[in-house]
Amino acid sequence: MTDKKIKKDMRVLVACEESQAVTIELRKLGHEAFSCDLLACSGGHPEWHIQGSALKQFDKGWDMMIAFPPCTDLALSGSMHFAKKQADGRQKASIDFFMKFVNAPIERICIENPLGIMSSIYRKPDQVIQPYWFGDKSQKSTCLWLKNLNLLEPTNIVEKGEFFEWIDKKGKKKKQPLWYYEALKNAKTNEERSTLRSKTFPGIAQAMANQFPKPTKQLKLDL
After folding, report:
1. pTM reported for the whole predicted model
2. 208 — phi, psi (to 5°)?
3. Phi–psi pair at 32, nearest 5 degrees
4. What is the mean pLDDT for each group of 10 consecutive residues in the chain (223 residues)?
5. Beta strands 142-147 and 127-129: pairing type?
6. Residues 6+ apart with CB under 8 A from 92
7. Is 31 exposed, middle or buried (0-12, 13-18, 19+ CB in 10 A)?
């Protein structure tokens, strides 16, 4: 029996990515990667960007997809707003959108999201990673749901990074990663705040580009 060879250079759709962080790392390695988002790209390479709905790109002959569906209505960090979002249908729409990536007709898929309700509504993630596993001194629990891909292996474990502490209006002590606090502080709009919080850390982008295109441990090359 002969198994299908893994292509050395792959066609990769990086869905819901305006920053092009992963796309650029894949391009450095010779892969035909394209970011896709409703927003214009901020990574400096519009020639590698498809502006529009990623859902319309599924049938374009991709070998792999790395997807970053919006987490605003799904992340546990926003649970205080869940009741309102459930009532007006926003959360259901976000769940349905997430599941379209799960069911996309692409052989190898990675879906990224923070800790959130998809772990119970869909299934537990295959892996929960941290930026400080890959050389970035920051903490952000990041879930990965994988199809025909190996788990990411840490490349450079460093310190977890600084935290910002403050007292809220109710007198309770609060604490969050400094990078997250600064993203909230520097953003001028909710849309900008969401974009800054969701950007992929450089080390994770490099690990995805270097490790995901390789054959999975379950697949064999032709002998």
Report:
1. 0.85
2. -60, -45
3. -90, 80
4. 57 97 97 97 96 98 97 89 94 97 98 96 97 94 97 96 68 66 64 64 97 72 38
5. antiparallel
6. 86
7. buried
